Amino acid sequence: MIAIIGGGKMGEALLAGLLATGHDPAGLLVTEPHGPRAEELRTTYGSTVVPAAEAARQADTLILAIKPQDMVDLLDTIAAELRPGALVVSIAAGITTSLLEKHLGAGIPVVRAMPNTPAVVGAGMTAITGGVHTTGDQLDHAEALLRAVGDVVRVPERHMDTVTALSGSGPAYFYFIAETMIEAGVAMGMTRTTAHRLVTRTISGAATMLDSSGEHPVVLREAVTSPGGTTAAAVRELERHGVRTAFADAIEAARDRSRDLSEG
Ligand SMILES: NC(=O)C1=CN([C@@H]2O[C@H](COP(=O)(O)OP(=O)(O)OC[C@H]3O[C@@H](n4cnc5c(N)ncnc54)[C@H](OP(=O)(O)O)[C@@H]3O)[C@@H](O)[C@H]2O)C=CC1
Ligand SMILES: O=C(O)[C@@H]1CCC=N1
Description:
Belongs to the pyrroline-5-carboxylate reductase family. This protein is an alpha/beta fold.
């Protein structure tokens, strides 16, 4: 039995992704304290919604998908209820394996994972790292579970805050770019529907090409940049406005915020 504790944005993305890839709804429990939200998850996914302590008593694998700020209270609630041998996977930004271990008690195997919302369409990117009591088989199990909703990499824990800044928050940066490009098209007189289609397909086409070609993005960008042409004019404006530095600073800020979250 798998329990997803926290039926918010990311908990739902994992739930939807696992169900879409053939997980039996009867083998999935959800914990969600907010009544209307719990009802929505019941009706949309046929989920069984139970309190956290009950989920801990029943599940072999618990996925903790609550806010980092709520984590310590939840760990203290479930610690005494866990089934022997249960694996606890936290997807909370900034929450370290040592904090999980400290509150869950001696010997509990934990995995710190950082997924992203494209998991909902099976195109997630997740990084995982194990705690001191986690065996290779348990890490394999967590990887197999998350692989159902996308790609998975293993990283040393010291990189998890950087992962959070790159791929955890990453989809938001692309939605921000998409939003900005669509608005630019609308400002130039194009219909919102057409601008949306042009931008969406351009982003997904560029991402597919980047992924499948294995080329460095600079090579692909140069292929778009005709001498004396439109792209060169656009890129010069991006550089003039410091967009490269803005991205680097934004990603560092996300990394630093992830570090802060482990301090409560
Ligand atoms: N959103 C994203 O793209 C990603 C998020 N994450 C991580 O996932 C976690 C959840 O984020 P997100 O889904 O965005 O946040 P949300 O606020 O959408 O979801 C959190 C959910 O957990 C519920 N909750 C709060 N306390 C408990 C509890 N004790 N037991 C069970 N459920 C509880 C909340 O209910 P209520 O609102 O009533 O408090 C809410 O529905 C965070 O730790 C975040 O760092 C990781 C990767 C990507
Ligand atoms: O914004 C956040 O804190 C979470 C973690 C990564 C993506 N969303």
